[in-house]
Amino acid sequence: MQACRDFQNTRLLSRRSILRAGGMGLFGMTLPRMIFAEEAARNPKLIAKAKNVIFLFQWGGPSHLETFDMKPDAPSGIRGFHNPMSSSADGIQVSSLLPKTSKVMDKVTLIRSLHHKMKNHNSAGYYALTGHAPPSDDQRLKDTPDLFPAYTGVVDRMLPSRSEVPSSVHLPYVVSDGTQTPGQFASFLGKPHDPFLVTQDPNDPKFALPELSLPEGVSYERLSARRELQQMIDSQSRLMEHSAAAKGLDGYYEKALSMLNSTQLREAFDLSKESDKTRDAYGRTTYGQSCLLARRLVEAGVKFVTVTFDPTIGGQSITNGGWDTHGFNDTRMFPIIEQRHLPITEQTLPTLLTDLDERGLLDETLVVWVGEFGRTPRINKSISRDHWPFCYTALLAGGGTKRGFVHGASDKNGEHPAENPVTPDDLAATMYHLMGVDPHTEVHDAANRPVPLSYGNVINNVIA
Fold first, then answer.
1. What is the pLDDT of residues 205-220, one digit of tens each?
2. Which of 120, 206, 226, 418 lies 20 to 30 Å from 39, alpha-carbon distance?
3. Long-range contacts of range 415-422, CB-CB < 8 Å, 24 or more positions apart?
């Protein structure tokens, strides 16, 4: 509490007083933190332009050269096998295999200068899902309380739901590459801030949520009575006083119990209320129906929905897997892209953006389409592209961002940022800012040290 009071006391500090203080701590604050406080004083209350976020995580790393940053004039061995095509936005070209997507580019902002240094899926995935660089670029990186929480956890902490509807949802997969990728849960913020996790397939005709269904013959009132009895027993055994893990489970249980009584949430998950025409438009795939479910969830009041493209990075199959394209040895150039990735994207992404726009939801719903990195501009001997975090593209739409706009640029071969470089930290800061949350707000980590939600800078140029 004292740290919070100290932070408030510094809000009126001028830059001159900060410079006089130099590198010395004032009220226990470092110079960067005092600068953050001064910025907060100039903008004491942010207005939320994005009431909701749909974060479409493209696990495996999509190639920017085969999607939204094509280099048709690059030498053979760099340029892809697909031609670029014009779009509804002046000056923006996309892959010729994305004709429907090309028609909604006047709704989006492309960031073509995203970059970092993490070459392994798990470390890069953690960076993408939290906006914080991992301590090392290690494929064996595992979820520990020392790592930062997922966006979903931060949103649940900073923008808690005022109803039975959860503030954040993660669906339909928990992603992994050998081991579970860290950064998908609330970490040091505590288990009560974990997202509501949905791992059933929304495309399954039998899709239902047992989490929201009471056992046969058990009423909500009876379940609540059982919970009161359990709390009394826990109190008598002093379990809750001695077990932080139990405290977390208790908080999570309370939230789950509240959701069980939510007619609004049960209806949001009922995809049978959508017409066959709408469900067909999104695509009868797990990803397509998950994106439709995400739209229904933000309509119901969920503030942050993460939709993962696939549970695995991909491989040599053309019928399942994420955006990884290693080792096909196929002169058609990554058949999984042509037969799976791009067709699913072409079906679902423009449908989601158009649906949100026609319903009047896009202006207040931020859609983010991004992977953990891009692919190497140079095609390898196996006729594929390898991991490339040094320059790739993110797509943003709605939620207070510009339409038909490009921020940043890659160099002539798509290898490195040539203009306005952006890090995942900056993207995180921008998302928080658009949601009305100061990205420099401090929380306390597992060692009770104050840390900001983001170390990045807001990308003001993409904000409308």
1. 999 877 666 555 655 4
2. 418
3. 415/377, 415/388, 415/390, 415/391, 416/115, 416/390, 416/391, 417/112, 417/113, 417/115, 417/391, 418/113, 419/113, 420/113, 420/461, 421/113, 421/115, 422/111, 422/113, 422/114, 422/115, 422/394, 422/459
CA distance 284 to 297: 18
- The distance from CA 171 to its chain's CA centroid, rounded to whole angstroms, is 11
Token pair listed for 104: 């909604």
Whether the pLDDT of residue 232 is over 60: the answer is no
C-alpha–C-alpha distance, residues 108 and 105, integer Å: 5
How crowded is residue 229: how many other Cβ atoms within 10 Å of its Cβ?
Answer: 10
- The per-residue b/e assignment along 44-57, b for 16 or more CB within 10 angstroms, e otherwise, is eebebbbbbbbbbb
Phi, psi of 67 (to 5 degrees): -130, -80
CATH class for the region spanning 50-208+269-462 = alpha beta
Tell me the C-alpha distance between 351 and 103, whole Å.
11
pLDDT tens per residue, range 256-279: 666 666 788 889 999 999 999 999
DSSP 331: T
Q: Which residues pair with 374 in a beta bridge?
A: 388
> Which run of H or of E encompasses 53?
strand 52-57
Strand residues in 103-160 grouped as ranges (E): 108-114
Q: Is the pTM higher than 0.90?
A: no
Residue 20 has pLDDT above 50, yes or no: no
Contact between 145 and 446 under an 8 Å Cβ cutoff? The reply is: yes
Q: Where are the domains of the chain?
A: 1-44, 50-208+269-462, 210-266
Run of H or E residues at 308: strand 304-308
The residue type of 93 is Q
* Strand ranges for 327-383 from DSSP E: 365-370, 374-375
Distances (CA, A) of 37 to 13, 257, 314, 459, 462: 8, 39, 44, 19, 23
Going by DSSP bridges, is the β-strand pair 52-57/304-308 parallel, antiparallel, or unpaired? parallel
d(CA 192, CA 241): 16
Residue 363: both structure tokens together: 């202006």
Helix (H) or strand (E) holding 56: strand 52-57
